[in-house]
Structures are given as C-alpha cells and as structure tokens.
C-alpha cells in the first residue's frame, strides 16, 4: 500500500535537477521517520501501516525545529500521504495511517502548497528579482 521511497535524490528534483522546496524535503524526512517506527495494523478490514506516537517529538527528532510541525503535518495531510486516526495531545499519542510517500507530483499539484510566499524570505527574493531586472536594463542602456 505504501509507495516507493523517493529519499535518494538529495534535495533535487528528478525532472530538471533543480532544488526541491524545503517544505517538500522536510515532508520526506518526517514521513521516513514515521515509517521507521510504524507497524502494520488491520484498520476496518484493511492492513495498513500506522504511526503511533507524539508527532511533535518525532518532527524534532528528525532534526527539524518545533515550529515546522504544523506546516509539515498539514502538507503531508494535504498531499494525502497521512490520514489521522486519532488526535493526540498531552500524554495521549496520535495515530496516523501512512498512505503514500510524498512525491514531487503530489506536492507540485497541490495549490495549497504552491502559494507564493509572503514571509521575509519571499520579500527578499522578490527584491532580488527586481534588482536583477533593473541591472539588466542598466547594462543594456550602457551597452554591456
């Protein structure tokens, strides 16, 4: 039921050798960590792989800062990679069905995950693009 593990790409897209988005890389890392401690279980007559634990702690043990928890969990759920069986909280562990590995196709085809950024980095990236265009116009004007 679980798709092949796409972890071997070292952060680069399989299609055009461009870097993959960091959120996608984080999703791969967390899904891999979930799978490593998951087990097979019968759920409604179907054998599925289930992760049971404190997902917040797992995200941190995967080397990500705690604030990434929500965006990674939501991205995995939005891509259909995980499905919640039971909500955790406090000492209660959450339970998740591992449906399929995150893929570039699932990530790229999800409009929720491909919205233009609005944070400081997105602003700086836009400023850099604007400066690059301006420099190109200056170089054209002076004949470089």
Number of E-state strands: 4
How many helices in DSSP terms? 5
Task: Specify Rg, calculated over alpha carbons.
Answer: 19 Å
Per DSSP, what share of the residues sits in E-state strands of 2 or more residues? 15-25%
The CATH topology of the largest domain comes to Arc Repressor Mutant, subunit A
Fourth-tier CATH superfamily name of the largest domain: Winged helix-like DNA-binding domain superfamily/Winged helix DNA-binding domain
Segments where pLDDT lies below 50 for 5+ residues?
7-13
How much helix is in the residues? 40-55%
- The helix/strand series, from N terminus to C terminus, equals HEEHHEEHH
What is the strand arrangement across the widest sheet? Answer: 1-2-4-3
Question: What gross morphology would you assign?
Answer: elongated
Instruction: Give average pLDDT, whole number.
Output: 85
| CATH class category label of the largest domain | Mainly Alpha
Instruction: Return the domain count.
Output: 2
- Overall SS class: alpha+beta
Largest sheet: 4 strands, antiparallel
CATH architecture of the largest domain: Orthogonal Bundle
The N- and C-terminal alpha carbons lie at a distance of 58 Å
What does this protein look like?
By secondary structure, the chain is α+β, with helices and mostly antiparallel strands. It is 42% helix and 16% strand. It has a four-stranded antiparallel beta sheet with strand order 1-2-4-3. It is elongated, with a radius of gyration of 19 Å.
Q: What order do the helices and strands come in, and which of them pair?
A:
Blueprint: H1 22-36, E1 39-43, E2 46-53, H2 55-61, H3 68-78, E3 82-86, E4 94-98, H4 104-108, H5 120-142
Antiparallel strand pairs: 1-2, 2-4, 3-4
Helix pairs in contact: 1-3
